[in-house]
Write a structure and sequence with these properties.
CATH superfamily of chain A: HUPs
Structural class of chain A: alpha/beta
Distance between the termini of chain A: 52 Å
Oligomer: homodimer
Largest interface: A-B, 41 and 41 residues
Low-confidence stretches of chain A: 77-91
Shape of chain A: globular
Number of domains of chain A: 1
CATH topology of chain A: Rossmann fold
């Protein structure tokens, strides 16, 4: 199986807290970093702007936004539809109503397709099993299975790096501090409702708030907004 | 892991010879059949019309065309670009220049995402390792890996059926006859150049011609076109 010898990585960067941390983590380890975000009609589209901002701050070689029209058509749920966002579990499957089936599988595949063209074999993603909010596509087991599918399906020696997989949110915040990612996190976006300043009440906002609180570190996003007089 | 008890299957139907055979194969086995084709800017777009025609002939519950804009953007090759189609191998990887990286992985994921919504756990695809033209995403190994990725990624008990996986093209033609799929094959499309009547010289046309010839069965597409005075 072929593998690239370039010191280069492609980061799946949604502009959220976790992928932004991973973007800096990758920039600290590879000479060239590329980043990719996905436009699937998400309610919190402001995160696409955040992804662009943090990618620029890190100095990526190229940042792409890949449209995934298909997910918009397929997903009947609250991240892309009109349903209210909340801690609501679907009655028939016990998954959060923010679950978009196949979302991360699609993202991995598209990222790998671009990486294949770039001759980049390292992919980096912020998925996390610990705080995975009930999403089965954030599990270590899924990433392992997807790695095998990408390797055999493209005959290319991809590695998917998941630096946050087994960290709590507080540990992710600590890692962000160690990796000098806090300045980037001031421009990351988390709120599922797409609010700036963040709504503070959706599951994503609550998770972020708890992570910073437990780590004993102030959220640089709130500090920045406060300094700008936004909150 | 959840699994559906519906007698229903979703067929990945490009409108080509193999997936059309699989469409009939599925209709002979499940009470309800759905079909899906993908629009990724392929040069042979006439196959999308063929897929619609054969799906109607079989009486599927629903046929969908899912847009995969992203593949069009990512793929720098002869099926979607301006390069000539032929038996050309790329210099750096030994794969045919018709290889669209990640294409089938994407199709499996999108099909599974729709199947998940439909509560359908059986997917059927015409991929074939024997005549796979050098595409790594048509191998049994890839389908197995992808099945694991879909199962763990969506927490749903998908099965991917590949009735043609280990058949030669001639054996696929024989299977089509046994399954009463020949009448459908009269409306299937194979030519990579999108020609009607088929160009007869591209790799796909040659493979089809050889399959029917070795099976000792006349190609119903050519018979139909001849009866209509087209060839």
């Amino acid at each position: 199986m072929r593998v690239s010898d370039r010191s280069a990585a492609l980061v799946l960067c949604s502009g959220g807290q976790d992928s932004t941390t991973c973007l800096r983590w990758a920039a600290n380890r590879w000479q060239e970093v590329y980043s990719v975000a996905f436009d699937y009609g998400q309610r919190h589209r402001v995160e696409l702007d955040a992804a662009h901002t943090v990618a620029s701050m890190v100095g990526v070689v190229e940042h792409r936004v890949i449209p995934v029209e298909a997910l918009k058509l397929l997903a009947g749920n609250s991240l892309t539809g009109d349903t209210a966002v909340g801690n609501v579990l679907e009655a028939d499957n016990g998954l959060p109503n923010t679950f978009v089936p196949g979302r991360n599988l699609m993202f991995f595949t598209l990222a790998a397709a671009w990486a294949y063209q770039l001759k980049v074999s390292h992919l980096v993603t912020g998925v996390c099993q610990t705080d995975y909010s009930g999403y089965p596509d954030c599990r270590q087991q899924t990433v392992q299975a997807m790695t095998m599918a990408l390797r055999t399906g493209m005959d290319y020696g991809f590695t998917i790096h998941t630096p946050l997989m087994h960290l709590t949110k507080a540990q992710s915040v600590q890692l962000a501090q160690e990796e000098q990612a806090l300045e980037l996190l001031a421009y990351s976006h988390t709120c599922y409702n797409g609010s700036v300043p963040p709504c503070g009440t959706c599951p994503a906002c609550k998770l972020r708030e708890r992570g910073f609180r437990e780590a004993g570190i102030a959220d640089p996003l709130l500090q920045r907004l406060a300094s700008e007089g936004t909150v």
